[in-house]
Amino acid sequence: MDTILIQAEELLETAVAILGKIGVPVDQARTIASVLVQADLRGIGSHGVLRLPAYVHKVQCGLLETDTRLTVIEERKATVLLDAGGGFGPVAAAEAMLRAIGKAKELGMGSAAVRNASHFGIAAYYARLAVEEGLIGVVISNAAASMAPFGGVQPMLGTNPICVGIPTGKEPAILLDMASSVVARGKIRLAQREGKSIPEGWALDASGVPTQDPDEAIAGTLLPIGGPKGYGIALVNDILSGILTGSPSSVEVRSVHDLKNPSPVGFFLQAIDLSAFCDPELFYERVDALTENLRASERADGVSRIYTPGEPEWERERERRENGIPIGPKVMESLRDLADELGVQMDL
Residue 155: CB partners within 8 Å, gap ≥ 6? Predict the structure, then answer.
């Protein structure tokens, strides 16, 4: 089977149908599916529908609640701490960001934290909710331990991402979404599934030797981006999203692929109203001018274009919405197997 192109709406409806079959309420299923499909639209296949079987199997093992019900643990004027009750991360994170946005519009800034929720997919989805309201969005999460501290070989920290979304005027919004490791672990799992090697510099094997074998990388450790700097970012993110929220941290966090234990993680989300600090129109004008100057700056040999963070993903999303999302044979096979198992008609 070759890679095929699937329209985003078809992929979304298939994911909604599969999630509905395991008991996820329709509105929540649509949120989860939207997060997965947006990842595939932006070219982040490691966090796209590739993740759907893991989510379903987690539910089938009784380790993930199908109906995500949020409970307020602590709320003040500008902050709220939510408990997701062992439910889906995308549902919890989307609601948390909406609450942060509401507080920011009233108070200038709003923060929301979540505990007891599962893997939430791409952080950019939630920062984008703020950007679409003309606000700055900040999203931090922790993850299962897959990366050793700088100089070590034992995985102690997750790839713990940070995302910052910044609205602009006429330019594409700036959307920095990065793991604290050289690469997200999901990309190694994708290579593993497709039977491909990984680039040198992504990971070490269990004995601390550089490897290009995805199996050895999964058994070993990912490398932090920028050496000690990435390690520092991962540590800070783990404290903000894990310890601060009362969630598991470090080696306490279990993988979403672990079918014997729940996999709760913590999130920290923030929304910032531009008007609390400056004239929004002047802000847009200055950010647009800055991005234009960056693109017009002198390029190194062999470089045809300078991008701003998130710009390649915006262009990829626009192209894929028009032409379809490329889905590889292994991912398509896993989706078909899942649909057959659940009795879902899949006409992709």
Answer: 145, 146, 147, 148, 220, 221, 222, 251
Q: What is the dihedral of CA 331, 336, 337, 341, to 10 degrees?
A: 140
What is the per-residue pLDDT for 187?
Answer: 84
User: pLDDT for 143-158, tens place per residue?
Assistant: 999 999 998 989 999 9
Structure tokens at 137: 């969005």
CA-nearest of 36, 41, 129 to 312 is 41
Give the C-alpha separation, 203 to 197, whole Å.
11
The 3-state DSSP class for residue 184 equals coil
Separation between Cα atoms, residue 105 and residue 36, nearest integer Å? 28
- CA–CA separation, 268 vs 65, rounded Å? 21
What are 30-73's pLDDT values in tens digits?
999 999 999 999 999 989 999 999 999 999 999 999 999 999 99
Angle 150-152-158 from CA coordinates, rounded to 5° = 65
Written as one letter, the residue type at 190 is L
Q: Name the E strands within 179-240.
A: 203-204, 210-211, 221-222
Q: Amino acid identity of 317?
A: E
For residue 113, give both structure tokens. 């934290």
pLDDT tens figures, 312-328: 999 999 999 999 999 99
From 236, 67, 284, 55, select the one nearest 138 (Cα to Cα).
Answer: 236
Q: Which residues are registered as beta bridge partners of 273?
A: 135
User: Full-prediction pTM beyond 0.90?
Assistant: yes
Domain 4-181+224-278+314-342 fold: Ribosomal Protein S8; Chain: A, domain 1 (3.30.1370)
Q: Which residues contact 164 (CB under 8 A, 6 or more apart)?
A: 127, 136, 137, 138, 139, 174, 175, 176
Rounded CA-CA distance 194/325 in Å is: 17
Minimal CA–CA distance to 261: which of 70, 61, 91? 61
Cα 244 to chain centroid, rounded: 20
Distances 30 to 26, 41, 152 between C-alpha atoms, Å: 6, 16, 41
Largest CA distance in the chain: 56
Question: What pLDDT, on the 0 to 100 scale, is given for residue 164?
Answer: 98
